[in-house]
From TrEMBL:
GO terms for cellular component: plasma membrane. One of its GO terms (molecular function) is ATP hydrolysis activity. This is ATP-binding cassette domain-containing protein. Residues 2-236 form the ABC transporter domain.
Length: 240
């Protein structure tokens, strides 16, 4: 279980201090899927980076399965059991796909294992396994590779930042199936940051973040009707 208590992250812009994440508290139970949504610029991706240790919290506490990981850096949090897929994955000129997936898995993967991972995210395995993770890959291809790195080994908690971004509809349907499989097994907790209605509808609980704070949080059946209300003020959801 993940417990987040009074988490705050600040930046200094031209000598003026501004809170991007403000005193946020929530939990994710074992095997639960929490979908975080909300308007662009509200602090969702920043929150994910703070949870992963890419950014350091100014205040608050992060506890994973009873272990206080607040002071851990990104490597220690990965070792503690957190997997993370960037919204905009980095590229690594000179590194092959099979090498990237092996690093993510923490062991040398067989080509057949890499092909299996690539197939799960909608990539034709034999065409990609020896390619470099560089600018020759499209944004959608990089996004699917990034998700494959998270699938490469078990985690206690997986964080996916807008997994639908740049993905074609066929590949998106495959990813939905993968998330459903993970969720059914209840072996890993999931945090998905998304504007996509199909993903939001998969959630056990939904959390809406606006202006760096929690605007609403609760069971899907309680929060989803508010997001679907065309007469409401929420503009955070993509219904296409």
């Amino acid at each position: 279980m993940l417990e987040v208590k009074n988490l705050t992250f600040k930046v200094n812009e031209n000598g003026i201090e501004r809170s991007i994440v403000k005193n946020i508290s929530f939990r994710v139970d074992d095997g639960e899927m929490l979908v975080i949504t909300g308007p662009n610029g509200g602090g969702k991706s920043t929150l994910a980076k703070v949870l992963m240790g890419i950014e350091k919290a100014d205040e608050g506490q992060i506890i994973l399965d009873g272990e206080d990981i607040t002071a851990y850096d990104i490597n220690h949090r990965a070792n503690a059991g957190i997997g993370y897929a960037f919204q905009q994955p980095p590229r690594f000129k000179g590194m092959t796909v099979i090498r990237l997936l092996s690093l993510a898995a923490g062991r040398e993967l067989k080509e057949s294992e890499c092909c299996g991972l690539l197939s799960r995210v909608g990539l034709c395995a034999q065409e990609y396994v020896r390619r470099e993770v560089d600018a020759t890959l499209s944004g959608g291809e990089m996004k699917r590779l990034e998700i494959a790195t998270v699938l490469a080994k078990p985690h206690k908690l997986c964080i996916f930042d807008e997994p639908e971004a740049g993905i074609d509809l066929w590949s998106f349907s495959m990813l939905i199936q993968e998330f459903e499989k993970i969720h059914r097994k209840k072996a890993e907790s999931l945090i998905l940051i998304s504007h996509q209605e199909r993903i939001i509808k998969m959630a056990d609980r939904i959390m809406v973040i606006e202006n760096g704070t929690i605007g609403a949080v609760g069971p899907r059946d309680e929060i989803l009707p508010r997001l679907l209300d065309k007469g409401g003020s929420c503009t955070c959801m993509n219904r296409e």
